[in-house]
Write a structure and sequence with these properties.
The chain is of the alpha+beta class. Strand 17 and strand 18 form a beta hairpin. The radius of gyration is 35 Å and the shape is elongated.
């Protein structure tokens, strides 16, 4: 038999056409499954690539300036343009204006930059709504989205402002009344720049006024709170160090914290975490889809193979029988892959997600040729290999003789323990290796394992996040609180913090800590924290090595160490207004951030003697823009706030640990594993229900035989219940163990991209409860097949 009955084409093609007509509904449903799996995998993979690059592309579109240079009245800011490696300079003023009627403490920094560089050439914000004001619109403004949300205004609203003249500027800080003109700013746009993405929700962001604003209001009408300049440098690795040295000779302080490198170090770890979560979704869905597809195609090939003996007897070659079996599955795989690729393109506007979506500079349809090409090719290859393997297996010419298998050891142990027959039978059916139901039961156990794995991994991730948030030591707070004030050496009638705390038994240790001390490390600008212990010992949190203890020693934050290319045991040159001195790197440190924001990975720690040797006088004043707080450790249960209120009155404030932006953004990523866990839990439930349905359908004769042998309908239902319980418990136990391992590994991968220590947590009770919960859900999902098994009629079967 070598040709079709119609004389056209081979026998295999003829039989395949018949099979396609007979099974078209199944082919369509299988193709829909393939399309769904391929679409989700390609969408998640492309979304991961898009997420990982979103912030870098936002920076490229925004074109922010590189460093901030602070200055006092009369500072030679115009001379910055003549320094080496300078591409552009934007001198600006911080206008003495504030919104009317806002809560106390609300400060919105309004920047006046006469040259217009910050709005139209550099720092170009992405417009979310409305537009950027024109140069000649003096009272038009585009607010950053965080500022607009804080003020409760939008496009088309008027923002009433009050102002202070240069003469009456002290009223702004002393609670006096504004003495300048009142006016309304017209909100013409809401925009987003990198600080709206990289910063925390409460961090301050600049609002840039048009050049026409200063033309309308001179400094005699609207004063200036501060002056400075933003500088764009040439793309040269040595530019920042050379520029810093030259600016220092002019008496100017360079602040690198307001620039793209800092923003990138704050935001990109979160982008990496989002990309990792999406890749995890892609991998899990791909594996699950492959398992389910193998089961579906195998079952279809098995049904087709029932006619093989007859076809072989009339001369149909094995090759033609394989073609007959494979073509429907191959059609479903090819068609489903094409549709899935189209679905991924259609779903691309929903990507990326979370913080990466806010960073995405070009939302909408995203065509990732690499993912589409390689992903579709891989899906076709895997799908067609599964089709070929299942079809070839079921169409072999060997005789399939049902062999009587000896019960497994576990089944024998259950029987010898005196378990009732329904339980023994259910265990045997669950652990059976026969071709009739073995694939379904194995798929059921695998489905439960995947589901429990995902849920447990998500719980481990969530518990680790909670531990990080609730453990200030992990993000740089090596003490319980800080006391902040304008002059901590003379608070309230000459009382100093040291005098108030030294004799208090509830205070176990305290130290004067100078923050934001401007230094250079190997020529690059940075900030130092100087700790001077006054009682007990206050030490920073170390990632590696030990804290500095001698004048010539220093500890570096992870970002600062990476910038300097230095590690523990290396030597770096440190300067703070004096000649650089050599310092030995004793460790890598995590630094605390203030309520105004910052990164725990940036900065250095010096001893008081080491800071003095580098040129720091030990005090902060108008010429040295740092600030001094008092770090305090207290005994458990001690009320530091009451002590400060009683001893120091309103001149000091107790600041509790503040998580850095890295932690806040990590909390935002926490929802992604929960979504993955829900998806896997649903897959597990469906898989177990499917295994129960297959068992009841394919083993109807066996179940009917049990009824004939004397089992009641209730006992048959117990057989199915026992089978589902074994599948759920075995798959759940393995999934829980693997979930702990996977959850810890994912957490370490995520925290490995941020400058914080990895401290995974395992919620033991939850890990035990998840398999039990999955058992209950599986039994509920299998209630339909279980009831059907109890109603089987032996006579009908």
């Amino acid at each position: 038999m070598t040709s079709g009955a119609d004389g056209g084409g081979s026998t295999g093609a003829y039989l395949a056409r018949i099979e396609l007509r007979r099974r078209w509904r199944g082919v369509v449903l299988t193709g829909a499954l393939v399309a769904l799996v391929v679409g989700v995998v390609l969408t998640a993979t492309a979304g991961a690539r898009r997420s990982s690059s979103a912030f870098d592309r936002l920076l490229q579109a925004n074109r922010p300036m590189d460093v901030f240079v602070g200055g006092q009245e009369g500072a030679p800011l115009p001379d910055l343009a003549d320094l080496p490696h300078v591409e552009a300079v934007a001198p600006f003023e911080l206008a003495a204006i504030s919104p009317v009627g806002q809560p106390s403490g609300t400060f919105v920094p309004m920047v006046v930059e006469p040259g217009g560089l910050l709005l139209y050439e550099y720092g170009r914000p992405r417009v979310l709504e409305g537009r950027v004001p024109d140069r000649d619109e003096a009272l038009a403004v585009a607010l950053g989205e965080r500022t607009a949300r804080r003020l409760g205004v939008g496009v088309g609203d008027l923002l009433p402002m009050e102002s202070y003249t240069s003469a009456g500027l002290e009223a702004l800080f002393d609670g006096g009344s504004p003495d300048g003109p009142a006016f309304d700013l017209d909100v013409v746009g809401v925009v987003r720049d990198p600080t709206d993405v990289a910063g925390r929700e409460d961090d301050l962001s600049f609002t840039v006024l048009t050049p026409a604003f200063r033309e309308r209001f001179g400094t005699d009408e609207v004063g200036e709170i501060a002056i400075g300049a933003l500088v764009a440098l040439e793309d040269d690795p040595g530019a920042i160090a050379a520029f810093t040295a030259a600016a220092d000779e002019l008496g100017l302080e360079v602040d690198p914290s307001i620039g793209p490198s800092t923003a990138r170090s704050q935001a990109n770890p979160t982008m990496s975490a989002i990309a990792l979560a999406l890749l995890a979704v892609a991998v899990v869905v791909a594996l699950t889809g492959a398992v389910v597809l193998t089961q579906i195609l195998g079952r279809g090939a098995q049904q087709v193979a029932l006619d093989d003996p007859t076809l072989a007897a009339i001369g149909c070659r094995r090759r033609d029988r394989v073609v007959r079996s494979a073509v429907p599955g191959a059609g479903a795989v090819v068609g489903g892959t094409i549709v899935g690729a189209l679905l991924s393109i259609g779903a691309s506007p929903f990507m990326p997600i979370g913080l990466a979506r806010r960073a995405e500079p070009a939302p909408g349809v995203w065509l990732d040729g690499l993912v589409l090409g390689l992903g579709s090719a891989l899906a076709l290859t895997i799908g067609l290999v599964i089709v070929a393997a299942t079809s070839a297996w079921w169409t072999t010419d060997r005789r399939r003789v049902r062999r009587v298998r000896r019960p497994g050891r576990l089944v024998t142990a259950v029987a010898e323990a005196g378990a009732p027959p329904p339980l023994v039978t259910g265990v045997a059916m669950a652990l059976g290796r026969g071709s009739t139901t073995g694939s379904a039961t194995r798929a059921g156990a695998a489905g439960v394992g995947f589901g429990v794995l995902g849920v447990v991994a998500a719980l481990v991730f969530a518990a680790s996040t909670d531990r990080l948030v609730g453990t200030p030591d992990l993000y740089g707070w090596g003490w319980d609180a800080t006391i902040s004030g304008d002059d901590l050496s003379n608070l309230g009638d000459g009382v100093s913090v040291g005098e108030a705390l030294a004799d208090e038994p509830g205070v176990t240790a305290f130290a004067d800590v100078a923050f934001q001390v401007s230094v250079t490390v190997d020529g690059a600008p940075d900030f130092a924290m100087v700790i001077d212990s006054r009682k007990g010992s206050i030490e920073p949190v170390m990632l590696e090595g030990r804290p500095p203890s001698a004048p010539g020693e220093i500890a570096l934050g992870p970002n600062s160490a990476a910038s300097a290319g230095a590690g523990v045991g290396d030597t770096v040159a440190v300067a703070s207004g004096a000649s650089a001195t050599a310092h030995l790197v004793t460790g890598i440190v995590i630094l605390p951030v203030s309520p105004d924001g910052g990164s725990s990975g940036s900065g250095v720690v010096l001893t008081p003697d080491g800071a003095e040797a580098a040129g720091f006088s030990g005090s902060c004043d108008e010429e040295v823009s740092c600030y001094v707080n008092v770090a305090v450790d207290v005994a458990p249960g001690f009320d530091l706030v009451s002590l400060v209120d009683a001893q120091l009155g309103g001149d000091a404030t107790v600041l509790l640990p503040t998580p850095p932006g890295e932690v806040e953004r990590l909390i935002a990523v926490e929802t992604l594993p929960v979504v993955l866990a829900g998806l896997l839990g649903l897959i597990a439930t469906v898989t177990v229900a499917h295994a129960a349905i297959v068992t009841v359908r394919r083993r109807r004769r066996d179940l009917a035989t049990l009824r004939v042998l004397g089992m009641t309908g209730s006992q048959v239902r117990w057989v199915v219940m026992s089978q589902v319980a074994v599948l759920s418990l075995l798959g759940g136990a393995l999934g829980a163990l693997l979930g702990v391992v996977v959850g810890r590994q994912v957490w370490q991968l995520v925290t490995g991209s941020i400058p914080l220590p990895s401290s995974p947590a395992v919620p033991v009770l939850a890990v035990v409860a998840v398999p039990l919960a999955m058992l209950a859900i599986s039994e509920l999902a299998a209630s339909g097949p279980r009831q059907a098994a109890g109603r089987l009629s032996p006579a009908e079967i």
